[in-house]
TrEMBL record:
Record-given protein name: DUF4145 domain-containing protein
Any single Pfam family the record assigns to this protein: AAA_30
Sections of the chain in a coiled coil: none
PANTHER family per UniProt: DNA2/NAM7 HELICASE FAMILY MEMBER
CDD domains on file: DEXSc_RecD-like, SF1_C_RecD
Source species, domain of life: Bacteria
Region (Disordered): 141-164
Domain named AAA+ ATPase: residues: 226-403
Record SMART domains: AAA
Amino acid sequence: MMGASVDSFAFLHQFWPDLAELGRKAEQAEGDEPELVAIRLRGLTEAMVVKLFRHLGLPYDPKEAHFDRLVQIENADLLDARLLSKFHAIRKVGNNAAHNRKVTNQQASLLLEDAWSLSSWFCRFMRPDVQWFTPIRKTVGQEPAARASPPDRQPTRPGGQPNVLRFPEERVRRIREHVARAMAEVDPRIRQLRTRITLHEAFTENLSGDQSACLDELQTFLADREQRIFLLKGYAGTGKTFLAKGITEFLSAQGRAFRLAAPTGRAAKIISEKTGREARTAHSQIYNFGDLREYAAGDDEIGSETFKFYAGIASNQDQANTVYIVDEASLLSDAYSESEFFRSGTGYLLHDLISYVGFDHGETDRKIIFVGDPAQLPPVGMSASPALDAAYLREHFGIKAVEYELKEVLRQKADSGVIRNVMPLRDSLSAGSFSSLGFMFDDDVHRLRGDDILPLYMSSRAKSGPMASIVITRSNSEAAGFNRAVRDALFPGREFVVRGDRLIVTANAIVDGTFLANGEFVDVVDVEAAVERRMVTLRQRNEETREVDVIDVPLVFRDIQLAMMSPDGSESVLSTKILDDHLHDGRAGLDAAQQRALYVDFLKRHPDLRKGSDRERISQILRQDPYFNALRVRFGYAVTCHKAQGGEWEHVFVSCPSGQNPRTPDYFRWLYTAMTRSSAKLYLIDPPEVRLKVVGMPEQTTDGSESGKPTINAFRAGIREHVRRAIDGQGIEIDDVAHHQYQEAFYLRRDLDAVRVNISYNGRFAITAIAVPPGGSLNEQLRDLLGPLVGKSAGSATPGVKGSEASAPGVPSRPFLRAFHDRLVPLLEAKEISVADLKEQAWSQRYTFARQAETAVVDIFYDGRDRLTKCMPAAGKRFNIPGGKLLPEVLEILVGEVLP
């Protein structure tokens, strides 16, 4: 034990006896009970923060947690970052001790040093009128080494950010000066944080093996100056956000600056709520919207002008070791983006973000952690999410990213009906196999018909609030239809926008100096009943006739007040104009004519700004013009999946796309993204299910027909088998087969190369020609591989299985067939049905099912993409007895219970 005679906190006793007593008791436990040291010091710093709140006049809520008070001080940037790191470190280790986590004697000693240094600063800050004597505390371990004195003040927020307190700027400045003055009087040897914790120790909760392995990688990444980007990937339910929260706790407890960002306002709000820290949109983090610059283009003729301005990349004032954590990184695009009149930075968001962070400055140790789900939809106009693609980052930025993908679904998440339904989609996307699609409906996941959606949507809205429900659609026109239906129920007879309407921003904009991102939701606080209508005449040259065409473009404006929720939960009201006609149409955005009409209208209203005017003056007036900057919005009760991405709602209604093939990666990715927007209840409207189809009885033959002549189906199967054998081992896949009169069209692919090969045959079922179009190496190779098939007769084309492909009885040889078999057998066993025999055939599996003395024989077919397509009872009494009970039960399982 340190000994009762030691009382390093005695100097606090005169003014704060409660703090002195907590410090004395903590010190007494040193050496014997390190966990008790940590718990008592946590109590000391909690009491200290309460006194700081009252001294500074900060809004005090006795029910507020210690962590929330520290975050409030941090966001206000009142204290030095070194002080806050000590508060956070003591809080975190104290919490761990309270949860029966081990604290070492060395940690306890270092915690006492940090608590003592905080106390030394605290007394000087609270009572600067007193001459304080606080000798260096005697420690159990080695004396703290003197360090080079860092800057007098280390801010907790970057410069230029708004004051979050309702204090006059002068008062905030005085507080910061007093904090710095008190800090300067503390011995330089103890200003820096002494307590060090590992990334694992930042988590009070138990971690899965997957999460623990990820933290090992992250710990190494954060300590290595050479590593710049970490890709923290994971599917829904694997705990990505949970880890992100712990990372912020670790960085706070180690005094390292960090910034939280997300591509959309809603995503920023969600990550802010889940971590308890401030988050911003990526745009507001990296662009300087207060300094818009202009560039011009267009002809001289009035009516054909255009004008552009852009926000430059902001100067990065963050500390040189700041860590940037970007959530929902799958949404970060690197495709060029601009509107007719506005561009953010270079137009390439990912490029601009990496440029802002400043990896090219060798003296910095800044890092980016991209957090995202690789199974979600990629950004519009891109085939993959570049921020989560290590190969893309290496190729385009020369950065070798470290990556870890979480795959283990957390136990508490695995019970969610939503997670149970998206896991098969995730597995299919990972495996690249899209043969089956089905859903498990329960209390969390419901099947709906299109007619049922409106009453259930209105009911969920009434129970959970207007912002708790969303309808997700495939297209803008479909969303417009749902929006009309919802508004008819909410505001009967009110065609135009009214107070209480919910809108979604459809193009980046700046309103009253506030950046509104595409996809941001806003609520109507007040609206002007009257609108302003103007007709703008445009002249544009016809590229074919070279004549100047004249078109009239209507513009309709409406004054409106909108409430926007900030990521920190605060609400701001913005006054602006909206383009009222855009609000009601079903298009993705304005067409080129409407965009140009806005600028021509601006020039007509400002005739003094015609050609020859000062461009800087034009730019300044243009930025402030309410008509030119009229907000583009649509009703926000139903949105497309891309607009919903990054958001989360309690009740999500997914209008499943119809009229297209669901067995594609795009469909699965769209469905996965839409379904994972739900945090509680999911409603699937007319969900597609890919199941086996039962087809009629084939023609009765011995091996195709009773006469020994094969049927057309058997012959086609034989051709497919010959092709499959010919290309086996060449890395060539059969994408599809189309049937034509006396011809089979094979669509073959290897990597990115695709070739159509036509195989012709005659009425005697003999192959007569192989047509391979001229082309590259794949075409030449196919010509060599398939050429020997010419002249093959019907008999030689009869399907069979190569000896090398034969498998053990009852076990399919190919992985996708084996996976289907493994799903089928338990369903059969539940009805006491067994698989008596299994024969592999070309493009089908022949199953013989048995129960007692009865048997049933069924052929199950698949295609060139390893997709099971249909099942057909084998023909003939020797296979299936008419009127038997077994066959109908087997077919019911095949088409109703087991997914292909």
